[in-house]
Amino acid sequence: MTMNSAVCFVVSYAINAVWQVPLLAAAGFAAGRVLRRWGPQAQHVAWVTTLLLSSITPALTALRGSVLAAISRARIPAGGGASVVITAAGPDFAVRAGTVLLPPAAIWTIFGLFVFALAWFAARFLLSIAATQRLVRESFPLALADGDAVIWERVRRAFPGPNPRLLSSIAVPGIMTSGARSPSIILPADFAGRWTGEDLLSGLAHEVAHVQRRDYAKNLLYEAARVLTAFHPVSWMVRAQVARTREMICDAMVIDRVADRKQYRQSLLRMAGRMAMDRRVAFQAMGLFDANILEERIMMMKLKRKAPSLRVRAMLMGCAVLLLLGGVIGGTAFAIGVAAPASVHTGRAEEVYKLGDGVTAPVLTYAPDPEYTNRARKAHYQGICVVGLIVGSDGRPKDVHVVRALGMGLDQNAVRAVKQYRFKPASFEGKPVPVELNIQVNFRVY
What pTM does this model have? Predict the structure, then answer.
């Protein structure tokens, strides 16, 4: 089975994600701590940004790594395996990346495991959506008693916007929300006999806050993006932080608009106690206790934070942006790309030899002098630039690159000059063969 560029890109994505997801999660954690004074809304934005960057950054880095791997693939002997190319981003982009040869079996194993994980989590995601849709279809319209209807009307006035349907089901232990275009709030079939008016007010207000924020649709987007990195345990921590801050935002909305702080806390505790023995919650429905952080939510509700000033908010946001940007830059500082064997890419099975063991050295027949840059000449700057290349069986340079940089623009001139060199090719057993060489290009001011 041949190894094409798509396989190499997928493997590169998986390798990058292994170390980039924790790095970005650490940046997101730091940003969340910085924004803690601002409140859960700002923290939520930081964690959502972290989640999306965790899926996007490995793809961008894999693309860059694949380009760098393509530069190095001519150095890989035909059939000798794929190469993992690791390069440090720096001012001299022409510096050759190091290569680590891996057998094709290792590349195919990584590819197979990643594709299996991707298919598994994608199937789980789609099945959870189907299960939630089935739950909505099997629920029945809810007719509220007079007193409960008054509570519902009070909630609707406090949260204008989309008008969700009220449904009831025997399959749910607590109140939850489902639906992106046509939202529905589903209550347990026996809620009337177990919930007080305060509990109904708190539960309905919390779920309508989700509806007003369109959290169900947003959550579908986040889960779809996270499928790519769902194999990584750290991505589940990031997902939990998104859910945590989302629930805290809705708690704050309820307290601000309809419920007394103490009353709301007591209602949450009562409803959580009734649900403790029954966790039959549809995976993609938004439940009142999804994040499993009830104790932290109760503690947060006891705190009365003063909103920071506009200047302080700008400073906090600036620090958070710099932290997340630092995570992205740190994640892309080392690009890991996977390249297939040279025979797959070039269509030829020509092995590159090294001098010795019967391989004669090529003979230089034409070598134009490199040009000095004006900047180096004015500074009386001189030294040696080491250039690596492959002298083909036709005597022409290939894959010319800088091995040891000199700077001041001289490296580019050295590469330009070496590309014009001509050789009598190396030979092995009387036949011309390509060989790998390093050439010292000497720059001297006279």
Answer: 0.67
